[in-house]
Structures are given as structure tokens and as C-alpha cells.
Description:
Blueprint: H1 2-5, E1 31-33, E2 41-47, H2 58-74, E3 77-84, E4 90-92, H3 97-106, H4 110-127, E5 132-136, E6 139-141, H5 143-146, E7 153-156, E8 161-163, H6 177-180, H7 188-195, E9 199-200, H8 203-207, E10 212-213, H9 219-227, H10 235-250, H11 263-269, H12 275-285, H13 288-298, H14 302-315, H15 320-335, H16 338-349, H17 367-374, H18 391-394
Parallel strand pairs: 2-3, 3-5, 4-6, 5-7, 6-8, 7-10
Antiparallel strand pairs: 1-2, 8-9
Helix pairs in contact: 2-4, 3-16, 4-15, 7-14, 12-13, 14-15
Amino acid sequence: LLLNRVMLKRSTLRVFSLRSMSVRGSAKDEVLCDSSSFTSGGAAITLNNPKKLNALNQAMVEDVYYYLHHILKEGQATNVVVRNDPSCSAFCAGGDVAAIVQSARSGGSLHKTFFRYEYCLNYLTSVYPLPYVALLNGVTMGGGVGLSVHGRFRVATENTLFAMPETAIGLFPDVGGGYFLPRLQGNLGMFLALTGHRLRAYDLVHAGIATHYVTSDLLHSLEKDLRGISGTFDRAKKVQTVLDNYQQKSFKKPPEFSLDPQLDTINKTFDGETVEHIFSNLKSEGSEWSQKQLKKMSGFSPRSLKITHRQLKVGSMLDLAGCLNVEYRLSQRCCEDNDFIEGVRALLIDKDNAPKWKPSRLEDVDDKIIDHFFSPLPDDEELDVEFEKLDHVLSRN
């Protein structure tokens, strides 16, 4: 079913035995997969780019995509765990946007292929037939959210730090943010998308982003028990039971949601038909908390705020595939635009923290420009994640 849904042609798939391999990864071993871990029981894929906090580059995206398909091809695994090495403080801190911006500035192709491949991987995790378990033991932002949030199980720890901070760099919360964010409780998703607010630890369970919470000292034992799951029936139920048991071991009483005191205010103030309406709501509400949000967003790209607001409104009416297809259009328009290039320069490259947005004021962002960002690309550049074929990735040696 999965292979049909992603239009994987069996005739193009070069079959080989992963059992004959100890580890196979990119040239720099930035993604590892121990074949012995999935000849039976659970499989494990490890992100291994600690110097960049596991920020995804295209080779890493291709490797994870490749491994997920070949784990299925082997036919022995009962579940798949995606994890970071315990020595790294991040599950995945996002994508390598500096390289993407360099491609866009120089007329390269990376900014076209990276987002295309990444969104195909995001979609694959959502339809993966084996129980998919993401262990979010560290920083989880942007691309790391896309690699986890659409899967069946997402496990937070005390080390988890979540955010979708894209509006600060002139981008938008992609990787399916248009799908999962508007489906969070009330207007929490709009708040997280526009402000880039950070959530930690059990907050992710309260928000609906994580399904479970397990303390990091129990992860080794948890992974061992997941690898021990056997049989072809009730796999998801077995994984659920294991995760439930470890969550119960992790605390006696769940901690309160750190945003509980602000939830009513969030639901009222971020319920706006436009970004200007939300700004007006926050000004009228007048609390110290509301003024803090206003000040923060006032430093972000006005264009990104408007794109993001519409993205969530549109995404609330689409399925995940539809959202990813729209987001690919947005990603390509952003790579043609000043604000994304300028935001990455100011915050991540030169680090002067003084981006020059164009336009610099929210009221100067013409809705016709936003319409352009959402408009279709040329037919041969559009993405349809349900039918996209990455056969060259799957057939490599």
C-alpha cells in the first residue's frame, strides 16, 4: 500500500541485503542504520551530525528516505525508531538553511531539490506502515519537527526543546506546519507559528505535539524493549503499550502546562482574520505578556508573518499532502525573495541580528504579493508528494 501511494516502481528498485552491511550512511556517516537492529524486531535510524546539531542537509534527507524504504523491503522489522546519538544535544535543529540560501543566491539547484526531497520524506513518515517512533531527546526545530510530528509516536524527554522559529528568518513554518499547527487546541498553533515560542519537555504532550514523555535515563532500556517486539499482528498496539509503561515510570504526576495561564489570552488574541487584527487584539489586551509578544513579532519579517497566517488558514482545510504541496510553492517563492535571504544572513551567517526586511512595516505588505506566493509554479516545477518518485535515491549502491 505504501509503495503504491508514493508511486515507487518496483522495477527501479535495486534489491540488496542490508543484513550483509554493518552500517550504511552518507559519505560523512551523518545518518547511521545498524542492520543488525532490524533483521528482526525494531529498527533504528540515528542522526549523526552533532557539529551542526543534526541540521538536515540533502544527503541526510536522502539517507533517511532510503533507509525507511529498505527497512520495509527487508520485511523483518516490527517498528522503526528515529533518534539522535545521546552525545548530541539535538534531535534535529532544523535544516541547513545557510546552504539553501547560498544556492538561491548563486542560481543553484539545492534550494529546489532540498525542499522537494524533505517534503517527500515528511509525507512518507505520515503513511509509513510500520509503527514510527521519534525520540526527541534534545532540540527539535523546523526540519526536526517535520521528521517527527507526522509519525505515529513522538516521545519527548526533559531535554526536548521545540520551536518553529521560521518567521524570524523570513521563512514560514514549513515541513507540514500548515497541517499540524492549526489542528492544535484553540489558537495555540497560530501563536506558536507567528511567535516561534519555545516549548519544553512535557509541554509537548500538553500541546499535542508529542504522544509520550519518557525521561532520558530510560531511553536505552526503552529502545531495547522496542527492538524486542516481534510478530506481525498488533504492532502499533504493542509499541503503544511499551511507551505507555515507560511514561508511567517517568513521573508520578504529570507537570502542568507552562502556557496554562495564557491559554485564554492566546485563544482570544490570536483569533484574528489578519495579522493586523492579531496585533490589534494584543495591543487592546494590554497585559505585559501580550506586549512581549507584540515586541517579539515586530522584529520578524512582516511578509513572513502574513504568509504564515494565511498558510495556517489554508492548511486547516487541506490534508497533509495538500499542505506540503502548497508549502513547496511557498518555499520556492521565499528563495526568490529578499526576506529569507536577508534573515538567514542577519541571524545565522553574519549574526548582526539586524535584518533589513522589505517592506519593513506590516501595513506595507500588499496582499497581492501574498497571493503570488501561494500561486502555482510552472507545471514542471510543482510538487505532488503523493506521486513524487525519488527512484534515484532508492536505486543507489
